[in-house]
Amino acid sequence: MTRFIANNVWKAIGKTAKTAEWRRAAIAYVTRRPPLHLGAGDILITDASKHAIASGQTSAHVLHELLDEGVLVYSRPGLHAKIAVLDGAVVASSANLSDNSVDDILLEAGIITDHPGTVAGALSFIEQLRELSQKLTDSKAKQLEKIPVVKNGGGHGNTSKRRPKISSDSAY
């Protein structure tokens, strides 16, 4: 089954992730604990470059916490993907793991599917990406935590929580 989601994207992803036995994700920017329910042996690939950390797009502290919990964290500068494979389902969306995305302030959208070919393709993509990425170690995470963070606002226009709800139901 394939499902389109346009409201509370991370709520839908979190529900799918909660019951998954394993998780593989490539999420460009991570500034908050992921609702992916990542645990020991799970994989997260993100942009943990000096630039992403210094600009506040990725949180070194959050990545260090995940490492401490046994999550295998990798860094790939320039990553822009937002994809997760949760057991036999794949989620592709516009949502980073940021407060604005997780708290449903930004208008995000995505697709959740259990289509076998799509899941296999996403797993292959994440594995190839992992091979091209640098594994984050405890000492590297500590170095990243020392980088001064200067956030440049990042105004997202009208982000009122009272924005109109957009239907994710199919009209066809």
Compact summary:
With 172 residues, the protein is of the alpha+beta class. Helices cover 30% and strands 19% of the residues. Helix 3 packs antiparallel against helix 6.
Q: Your description of this structure?
A:
- The structure is a single chain.
- The chain is an alpha+beta fold.
- 30% of the residues lie in helices and 19% in strands.
- The chain contains 6 helices and 8 strands; from the N terminus they run E-H-E-E-H-H-E-E-E-H-E-H-E-H.
- An 8-stranded mixed sheet has the order 1-7-6-5-2-3-4-8, sandwiched between helices.
- The chain is globular and about 45 Å long.
- The two termini are 16 Å apart.
Give helix % range.
25-40%
The DSSP helix count reads: 6
Portion of residues in beta strands equals: 15-25%
Q: Which secondary-structure class do the elements indicate? A: alpha+beta
Task: Tell how many strands the DSSP assignment holds.
Answer: 8
**Oligomer kind:** single chain
Shape: globular
* Major sheet details: 8 strands, mixed
Low-confidence stretches: none
Task: Tell me the span between the first and last alpha carbons.
Answer: 16 Å
